[in-house]
Amino acid sequence: MTTNEGLSDAERWEQGMQVRRAVLGDEHVDRAIANTTELTADFQDFISRYAWGDIWSRPGLDRRSRSVAVLTALIALGHHEELAMHLRAALRNGLTVDEVREVILQAGLYCGVPAANTAFRIASEVYGDEV
């Protein structure tokens, strides 16, 4: 059984917003909501219900493991803006900077040196004095 089984769309959205805020932080989510336009409203609803209310709310992986998977995918696909956001989220989900370093090294092996090089640059910008 998943944590979202039997939930209405409104309940799934509420659950998604709770998880989204826990992972990304209130400041980020408040900014995303404030910047919602008629063009982006359906997408914001979609990610709140589906990405956060369905997938991130499933019990099969803890948030640390989900962060490792997300970081690796973002490195592999070159989604740098999302990578910066999820590097911050990884710390909220319990990873340490040292563990993120290992994720980037591992990704470098399978995703390529240029991808890891860029990820290390972005991580250095995001973490600043923490590294």
TrEMBL record:
<dbReference type="Pfam" id="PF02627">
    <property type="entry name" value="CMD"/>
</dbReference>
<dbReference type="InterPro" id="IPR012788">
    <property type="entry name" value="Decarb_PcaC"/>
</dbReference>
<keyword id="KW-0456">Lyase</keyword>
<dbReference type="GO" id="GO:0047575">
    <property type="term" value="F:4-carboxymuconolactone decarboxylase activity"/>
</dbReference>
<dbReference type="InterPro" id="IPR029032">
    <property type="entry name" value="AhpD-like"/>
</dbReference>
<dbReference type="InterPro" id="IPR003779">
    <property type="entry name" value="CMD-like"/>
</dbReference>
<dbReference type="GO" id="GO:0051920">
    <property type="term" value="F:peroxiredoxin activity"/>
</dbReference>
<dbReference type="InterPro" id="IPR052512">
    <property type="entry name" value="4CMD/NDH-1_regulator"/>
</dbReference>
<feature type="domain" description="Carboxymuconolactone decarboxylase-like">
    <location>
        <begin position="42"/>
        <end position="125"/>
    </location>
</feature>
<protein>
    <submittedName>
        <fullName>4-carboxymuconolactone decarboxylase</fullName>
        <ecNumber>4.1.1.44</ecNumber>
    </submittedName>
</protein>
